[in-house]
Specification:
Elements: H1 9-42, H2 46-50, H3 54-83, H4 90-101, H5 118-148
Length: 149
């Protein structure tokens, strides 16, 4: 049985991705906490719940907070690409990052060989953060519907 050659570039990429994902988790935690506080402040009283359109406004506010949070997380990865010189300029780095984070992957940017796997690690982080946001949004919807009963 032949041993597979192990490429240590992926160890470095994994460690960098772990650090960037940790920053992403910290940012996402802050964003979800902001969404929670917004929900409690905006939909806490009986008067708030009876106001026409309050449900829609709460949902719009929470989704806006989530989108801003995800955008900030893309900027975290973008900053790394720019600061390390992995991508030639900020616009290209942002384009690559948003395509990787959202798992769209339709970027015209190709990372240098040494960093080729980093986009996939960013996609993993993005999927986890979108899952977290989805869980929070589902919890908000359940809470809103239980308050209507």
């Amino acid at each position: 049985m032949k041993m597979m050659n192990f490429d240590f570039r992926y160890v470095e990429q994994f460690l960098v991705a772990l650090a960037l994902t940790s920053l992403t988790v910290i940012a996402h935690s802050a964003g979800m906490n902001l969404a929670r506080r917004y929900f409690r402040r905006s939909y806490s009283s009986e008067k708030d719940r009876k106001h026409p359109g309050a449900y829609r406004m709460v949902m719009i506010g929470i989704v806006a907070i989530m989108m801003a949070t995800h955008a900030f997380e893309v900027v975290i990865w973008t900053a790394y690409y720019v600061l390390r010189g992995i991508v030639p300029n900020a616009m290209s780095a942002m384009n690559f990052s948003i395509n990787s984070y959202t798992t769209l992957g339709a970027s015209y940017i190709t990372l240098p060989d040494h960093w080729r796997g980093l986009g996939a690690f960013e996609s993993m982080a993005g999927m986890l953060m979108f899952g977290w946001s989805t869980a929070v949004l589902a919890a908000v919807v359940v809470k809103l519907h239980s308050l209507d009963a």
